[in-house]
């Protein structure tokens, strides 16, 4: 999903304002890559963050939205 979003945004880059970071969390299922990723992102001025996690237990064609951290790598910053 993220690669597809990246392709669409790159194709439309002339209409984009600012910098867009794309992150793939190393060791996502065990959260072992979370701290390094958060440390790297903390050194940048980021206005907005959006994340997605594929969840097999969710009914097809549905999305689940909820504020705050969730899933295996969730952490408060």
TrEMBL record:
This is Peptidase. It comes from gut metagenome. The lineage of its organism: unclassified sequences, metagenomes, organismal metagenomes.
């Amino acid at each position: 999903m993220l690669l597809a979003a990246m392709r669409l945004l790159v194709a439309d880059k002339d209409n984009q304002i600012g910098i867009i970071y794309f992150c793939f969390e190393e060791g996502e299922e065990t959260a072992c890559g979370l701290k390094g990723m958060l440390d790297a992102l903390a050194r940048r001025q980021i206005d907005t963050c959006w994340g997605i996690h594929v969840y097999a237990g969710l009914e097809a064609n549905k999305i689940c939205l909820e504020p705050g951290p969730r899933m295996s790598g969730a952490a408060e910053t």
